[in-house]
Amino acid sequence: MKGEYRQFCAIARTLDLVGRRWSLLAVRELALRGPLTAGAMARGLPEVPVSQLVQRLAELEAAGVVASGADGAYALTELGAGLEPVLEALARFGLGRLGDAQPGDAVLPHVLMRQLELRLEGTDLAGRFELRLEDPESLWSVEAGAPAPDRLALVARPDGVTARAGACLEPDATLRLTVADCCALVAGRRPPGTSIEGDAALAEALLSSLAPVGPLAAVA
């Protein structure tokens, strides 16, 4: 195949499979969102030309990384699922190198939530949190014709943290944030003046787990 590295090297062989532009992000979409049609996948890759995405999916299918079903949806194969730890390692490596979200950057809800989970790995945090987004229109919606979520639920237990879109049932603390604030927390920086409702100490523990200590503004 054109562009192959032609090296007897495991890294080079992996890059031969998924190293072309958009290929690994297509794998990310399937890993985080499950089986998707090319059109649905493109919602999570807002800058990809559809023709190029279709080409990449054909290449991934030929390599045995993805498989397409009768309904036109693509899913990771067993081989493709083996790339999930690679994605996680890349995400962990990149968390400390995100910097500020730049103008024009698409902030994807499912990616933002997974990065919050990774940032909170290994903490002893326990509690239920709701993040209320003041500007949900700043998020990129991956559902055609539907708005992006305006709330994110974080549930921290001793065995790990899970994040999902939507309201949190009986949260211990609710934090009001902009999307830019959430991006700053994912990058390890505390946004100023975060407003909270509920257990302020637990909210501080959450923020301290994500970013250095800074002031909180409690609201009734």
Set out the fold topology.
Blueprint: H1 10-18, H2 23-33, H3 38-42, H4 50-62, E1 66-68, E2 74-76, H5 78-81, H6 84-95, H7 109-119, E3 127-133, E4 151-157, E5 160-165, E6 173-177, H8 179-186, E7 194-198, H9 200-210, E8 216-218
Parallel strand pairs: 3-6, 7-8
Antiparallel strand pairs: 1-2, 3-4, 4-5, 6-7
Q: SS-based structural class?
A: alpha/beta
Fraction in helix: 25-40%
Q: What is the string of helix and strand elements? A: HHHHEEHHHEEEEHEHE
| Average pLDDT for all residues | 92
CATH class of the largest domain: Alpha Beta
What's the main sheet like? Answer: 6 strands, mixed
Explain what this protein looks like in three dimensions.
Strand 4 (151-157) and strand 5 form a beta hairpin. The chain is 38% helix and 18% strand. The strands form 2 sheets. It has a 6-stranded mixed sheet. It folds into 2 domains: 10-85, Winged helix-like DNA-binding domain superfamily/Winged helix DNA-binding domain (Arc Repressor Mutant, subunit A); 100-218, Nonspecific Lipid-transfer Protein, Chain A, CATH 3.30.1050.10. Helix 7 (109-119) packs parallel to helix 8 (179-186). The protein has 220 residues and is α/β, with parallel strands linked by helices.
